[in-house]
Write a structure and sequence with these properties.
The protein has 452 residues and is of the alpha+beta class. It is built from twelve helices and six strands.
């Protein structure tokens, strides 16, 4: 007890649990079994096939297509409301008083008695038309065009997201492969170091330092595997497939990433009229103009006409009509006179809304040109970074291999080997970030230029 107290007073740690490994091989196998996925089906896709599959299956894009179809249906509703409307009616009056039903009424002694419960038949055709209804039909046509643009924009965004997600999976798989290779090399060196320390050729401290580095690499490798699973799940969401479907990506990373193609996008001209945001803002100005016209037509007349045919049948007692003629035709013209300024305020409000739409359109037109220059700059910078990191990872690999060989011959220390390993992992991480940045920059510029 005195020794323990003295050690505590001296600030020394007691090696009670430190030597007990928390992550045993059996426990690691159990954790791997928990994270292992079991698939019931398989889906093999190239990048182009993945894009087409997403377009066909993605429910978000399906909803955008439904919105376009609804716009067509709403247009026909507006047009149909300006066409003739025909209604028919049939009815019969039933008397429940027996004494009253037995009585007969005759307006003309020469006519047979009339029943008090006739059948009535009616047919009415009507039509109404005003300027607001016509402008409303034009608004529906514009809404269809805007929904079509929105659908195309949603499809373009979905294709771009599939490209980014597809490449993210491929990049993560390459990262896992690189990490596994580095881990395998470090484990071999750690085993050699353990044997050298066991026979007293080197100090055990060096073996412990190397073992710590191996454990760090192993944790990083496991984290990368889990990140790969997340990348696959993100792609599954875009493709709208369940978690039990195994995705097999048939394209490799080097087949898709082409720095030459990325640079070729920089030299494409920018046609602002092909940009979806520009098209929507342009239609928004047209929409504001039509809303102003509709508000102005509140001062216009409303013309309505109708035709009515009615007939009464008195059954076995003989036909008889209570009207001189069963045909009725009429029309009305309604003209607004006074609304206490409601219509004037509505016109003023729509005129201000039109000015706002024009201002937004002008501002966005200028911003789109600035955005194009920024996206070109981003792609240029991403390509330069990618070229640098691609060269750096090659250098880091050669340095690590050289230090590993020296370490095997006793010409390098464990610290030098650990530093070389750290430099390699850092270079790999920077390379991965550069690849993803290059892909994202190219995808964003292609999407901005409306390239398929």
């Amino acid at each position: 007890m005195k020794k323990i107290v003295l050690m505590l007073m001296a600030g020394l740690s007691l090696p009670l649990m430190a030597q007990q490994p928390l992550m045993t091989d059996s426990l690691r196998m159990m954790l791997d079994a928990v994270s292992e996925q079991h698939y019931t089906s398989q889906l093999s896709l190239s990048l182009r096939e993945a894009q087409e599959y997403a377009v066909q299956q993605n429910r978000t894009l399906q909803n955008a297509s439904i919105d376009a179809k609804r716009a067509h249906a709403q247009r026909w509703q507006t047009i149909a409301s300006m066409l003739p409307q025909v209604d028919g009616s049939i009815g019969k009056t039933i008397m429940y008083d027996d004494e009253f039903n037995e009585k007969k009424i005759s307006l003309d002694p020469t006519q047979p008695p009339m029943s008090m419960s006739p059948w009535t038949f009616g047919l009415t055709a009507s039509i109404g038309l005003n300027g607001q209804a016509i402008v409303g039909a034009l608004l529906n046509n514009l809404a269809i065009k805007m929904q079509d643009i929105t659908y195309q924009q949603s499809e373009s965004d979905l294709r771009a997201n599939v490209v980014e997600s597809y490449l993210a999976v491929l990049v993560m798989e390459d990262v896992v492969a690189l990490m596994d290779s580095s881990l395998a090399n470090m484990e071999k060196l750690a085993e050699q170091t353990d044997r050298m320390a066991a026979v007293g050729a080197i100090e055990s401290t060096q073996a412990d330092q190397l073992r710590v580095r191996v454990n760090q690499l192993r944790n990083t490798a496991m984290q990368n595997r889990r990140s790969t699973v997340l990348a696959y799940n993100a792609l599954r969401v875009l493709l709208d497939v369940d978690a039990q479907t195994e995705l097999v990506l048939t394209n490799s990373l080097h087949e898709i990433i082409s720095p030459e193609n990325a640079l070729s996008v920089l030299f494409e001209g920018f046609d602002i009229h092909n940009n979806f945001n520009y098209q929507l803002l342009e239609k928004n100005v047209d929409l504001a103009k039509l809303n102003l016209h509709m508000a102005g037509w509140a001062y216009g007349p409303t013309i309505s006409a109708y035709y009515q045919y009615s007939y009464r049948d008195y059954g076995k007692d003989g036909g008889f009509t209570m009207m001189n003629s069963p045909h009725t035709v009429g029309f009305t013209v309604t003209m607004p006179i006074w609304s206490s300024g409601v219509r004037a305020a509505g016109v003023h409000d729509k005129r201000l809304a039109l000015q706002q739409a024009k201002n937004t359109f002008s501002e966005m037109s200028e911003n789109l040109n600035i955005q194009y220059q920024q996206l070109r700059y981003n792609l240029t910078n991403a390509y330069e970074t990618y070229a640098t990191e691609n060269e750096n990872i090659g250098v880091a690999k050669r340095v690590f291999q050289n230090v590993s060989n020296k370490y095997n011959w006793g010409a390098a220390s464990a610290i030098e080997l650990t530093n070389a390993s750290n430099d390699l992992i850092t270079a790999q991480s920077s390379y991965v970030q550069a690849v993803l940045a290059l892909v994202n920059a190219e995808v964003e510029l292609n999407k901005f230029l409306n390239n398929k």
